[in-house]
């Protein structure tokens, strides 16, 4: 079976914008070989159909990505059942990312670089070290830059 060209896939996905909900539901049935969720909105239905078109054309997730997602879902299931506390991880920041924060009336810009962070021409190994340098007091770097939610901070505070 010949693999479609990226242009052909792009054209097929663009054509989804011209379909009504019934036509999208029919495409779902054809692509997933199951009934679509009964109350799915057309926007999400369109995205799911587009994803499946790409998945069939170019392949799906790598096995390592599937395992990571399954482990994450299992952790969420345990947390919601009360078996284990949720442990949200701080996001991994790719080099080239720039973090921006207002602090005491000034805009603070921190660059993520390989092996750490740069602020005002100085290198730091951790984001918390940057936050301490900026504020002059002990701070969680991810919390200072808004990379952790209030819920994850509360979960950490509740641990013995």
Strand and helix order: HHHHEEEEHHH
Number of helices: 7
The overall strand count is: 4
Report the β-strand fraction as a percent range.
Answer: 5-15%
Global structural class: alpha+beta
The average pLDDT score comes to 84
Identify the strand order in the major beta sheet. Answer: 1-2-3-4
Radius of gyration: 22 Å
General description of the model:
By secondary structure, the chain is of the alpha+beta class. The protein contains 7 helices and 4 strands; from the N terminus they run ααααββββααα. The protein has helices at 6-15, 21-32, 42-58, 63-81, 127-135, 141-144, 150-158; strands at 98-103, 106-113, 116-119, 122-124. It has a 4-stranded antiparallel beta sheet with strand order 1-2-3-4, with helices on one face. A hairpin with a 2-residue loop joins strand 3 (116-119) and strand 4. Helix 1 (6-15) runs antiparallel to helix 3 (42-58) and helix 2 (21-32) runs parallel beside helix 3 (42-58). It starts with 5 loop residues before the first helix and ends with a helix. The model has no long low-confidence stretch (mean pLDDT 84).
Topology (elements, then pairings):
Layout: H1 6-15, H2 21-32, H3 42-58, H4 63-81, E1 98-103, E2 106-113, E3 116-119, E4 122-124, H5 127-135, H6 141-144, H7 150-158
Antiparallel strand pairs: 1-2, 2-3, 3-4
């Amino acid at each position: 079976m010949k693999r479609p060209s990226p242009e052909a896939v792009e054209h097929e996905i663009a054509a989804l914008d011209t379909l009504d909900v019934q036509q999208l539901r029919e495409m779902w049935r054809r692509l997933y070989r199951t009934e679509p969720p009964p109350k799915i909105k057309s926007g999400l239905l369109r995205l799911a159909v587009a994803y499946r078109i790409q998945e069939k054309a170019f392949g799906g997730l790598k096995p390592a990505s599937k395992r990571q997602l399954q482990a994450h879902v299992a952790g969420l299931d345990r947390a919601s059942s009360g078996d284990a506390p949720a442990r949200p991880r701080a996001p991994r920041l790719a080099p080239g990312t720039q973090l921006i924060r207002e602090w005491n009336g000034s805009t603070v810009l921190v660059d993520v670089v390989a092996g750490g962070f740069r602020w005002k021409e100085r290198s730091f190994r951790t984001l918390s070290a940057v936050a301490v340098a900026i504020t002059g007091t002990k701070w969680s770097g991810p919390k200072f830059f808004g990379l952790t939610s209030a819920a994850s901070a509360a979960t950490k505070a509740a641990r013995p």
